[in-house]
Amino acid sequence: MTKRIAIVGAGPAGLMAAEVLSQYGYELHVYEQKPSAARKFLMAGKTGLNISHAEPIEQFIQRYDQVDWLAPWIKKWDANWIQQWMQDLGIEPYIGSSGRVFPTEMKAAPLLRAWLKRLVEHGGQFHYRHQITHLAKQQLTLNDLKQDRTFTEKFDAIVLACGAVSWSRLGSDGKWQAWLDQNEIEPFQASNAGVEYPWSTFMQPVFGQPLKRVEAWVEGADKTMGDIVISHYGLESGLIYKQGRGLRAQVKAGQQMQLYLDLFPDQTIEQLTKKLQPSKKQSLANIWRKAGLDGAKAALVRELVAKPIWQNAAELAQKVKQLKISLTGFRPIEEAISCAGGVKQSSLTDQLQLKSNPHVFMCGEMLDWDAPTGGYLLTACLATGRAAGYGVHQYLSRT
Ligand SMILES: Cc1cc2nc3c(=O)[nH]c(=O)nc-3n(C[C@H](O)[C@H](O)[C@H](O)COP(=O)(O)OP(=O)(O)OC[C@H]3O[C@@H](n4cnc5c(N)ncnc54)[C@H](O)[C@@H]3O)c2cc1C
C-alpha cells in the first residue's frame, strides 16, 4: 500500500518538505487554508526576495540564535545550494553588493510558480482552502472551506509547516498551538520588529527621518552600524532588528529594554568635544549643525539629553557617543517580520519528529529559532523543510 503523507501549510518550509518527499512515490497531500500557496513568501518578495546570504558558512550560521541545532541543516542546504536549486527551477540568482541573494527578477512569484508546477508534476496533490482544525495521533480534522464540510483523514505521517504568528492575514495564525502540550512550545515574541518609545510632540517633525550611519548596541552584545528611522511609535530598521535578540533577553530577564546609540561612530569624544564648544558668536543650533548634529540627530539629543548638558561640550560629546534609550517594548507581534519562540528543540528528535507523537514532523518558522532578516529566515525554513522531509522518509522506511 502506498503510504499517505499530509503536509499542513504551503509556505516555503512545507513546500520544501513536499519536494523531498515527492521523490519517493508517496501519496502526498498538501493542505493550505488560504486560496493559494505561500502568501508570506510572496509578500517577502514584494520589495525583493532576499532568499539567502552569500557569506562564509561559519559566519552565516552565527546569525541564528540556535546555532547548534540548525547548523547541520544550514551547512548542507546553504546559500550555494539554494542558488543551484533556483537555477534548476529556471530562476537565475543574483548576489547583491551586500552579499544578499535574490532572484534576478527580484520577485517571488516566478520562482513560486515554477516550484509549484514541478511539485504537481512530481505527484503532489494540493488542497487549497483546506484548514486543519485538529490533530490527534495520525488523524487530521479538515475543514473544506469551499464546501463548508468537516471530515477526518488518517495519514502515515504528517508534516506541520504552519508558520509562526505574525502577519496572520497571510495564513500563519498560530492556531496549531492548541494541538500541542503548551510545555512543548516556547511562547512567541516579535522579532525583526520595530521598538517603541513615547516621543514628546517635539519629535513629530522628524518622524520618518533617518539617523544616518549610527552604531547601536545593547549591553553585552556586539555593536552594529547602519541607519535607523525615527517613526511615530519609536525606532525601526534592519539595525534595530539586529539588536532584537539582546533586547528580548532583557525582557526575559525582567529588565527594561535599553538600547545605546553612538550618533558619531567615526569620531572620537575629543574630536566632538572640540566641535561642540559653545561660542558667543554662534547659536547652539549652528554649532550643532556644523558638528553634524542636525535634523533627526539634533531632535533626538534635545529629546533625550537634559538641557543643562547641551552647553557642556565634553559631557554632550560623551552622551551622543553613548545615547541611552529606555524603550517601552516591541511593536505588536502581528506586525513583526518574524517570530522568536515556537516548538522547542527539546520537543523534537534530531529528525524534527515530535517526541510526543511520532507520526508528526515539524519545520519552518513554527520552530523555536530566530535570525535577523537578510535571507537567514528563508534559508532556515527551506533547510528545516528538507530535514523534516528526510525525517519522514527515514521514519516511513522503518515502519
Ligand atoms: C513582510 C515580510 C517580509 C519578509 N522578507 C523576508 C526576506 O526578505 N527574507 C527572508 O529570509 N525572510 C523574509 N520574511 C520571512 C519569511 O517570509 C518567513 O520566515 C517564511 O515565509 C516562513 O515560512 P514557513 O513556511 O515556515 O511559514 P509561512 O510562510 O507562514 O507558511 C505557513 C503556511 O501554513 C498555512 N497554515 C497555517 N495553519 C494552517 C492550518 N491550520 N491549516 C492549513 N494551512 C495552515 C498558512 O496559511 C501558510 O500558508 C518576510 C516576512 C514578512 C512578513
List keywords for this structure.
single chain; elongated; 399 residues; alpha+beta; FAD/NAD(P)-binding domain; seven-stranded antiparallel sheet; binds flavin-adenine dinucleotide
Describe the structure.
- This protein is an alpha+beta fold and 399 residues long.
- It has 2 domains: 4-189 and 337-398, 3-Layer(bba) Sandwich (FAD/NAD(P)-binding domain); 195-330, no CATH class.
- It is built from 14 helices and 20 strands.
- The protein has helices at residues 12-21, 39-44, 57-61, 67-76, 79-88, 109-121, 238-242, 244-252, 269-275, 284-290, 295-304, 307-310, 313-321, 376-398, and strands at 4-8, 27-32, 52-53, 93-95, 100-103, 125-128, 130-136, 139-144, 149-154, 157-160, 185-191, 195-196, 210-217, 224-231, 234-236, 257-262, 323-327, 329-330, 338-343, 360-362.
- The strands form 5 sheets. It has a 7-stranded antiparallel β-sheet with strand order 17-16-13-14-15-12-18.
- Helix 1 packs parallel to helix 14 (376-398).
- The mean pLDDT is 97.
- Bound molecules: flavin-adenine dinucleotide.
